[in-house]
Specification:
five-stranded mixed beta barrel; 1 helix; globular; 45% strand; 110 residues
Length: 110
Amino acid sequence: MKKCQTLSALMAAFVFMTTAIILAHDVAHRGTVVAVEAARLQVKTVDAKTKKEDTQWYTVGPKTRTKRADKVVPYAEAKIATGERVVLLVNHAGEAKMLITEIRLAALGN
């Protein structure tokens, strides 16, 4: 009986930990910048399976990390332009809806 209780407790802990890991997972969104504001980005994406286009606003938070090529830069200094290709890592499970955890941009041309 004690063995069964221990096994049940271990299984419950495993399910809890697995759920927490899944909920904390960021989702990558690839697209083209449509609009840039101080606290959000509008990006047009295309669904790989359906080929349907979607334009969505994403929230830029104080902890959002912005990378231009391999260099981390402040969001305000990233010089994000409309029409530019972008990859966003988004936390859908966070308190803020569509919160960007990381913005990845290509190097600026010289």
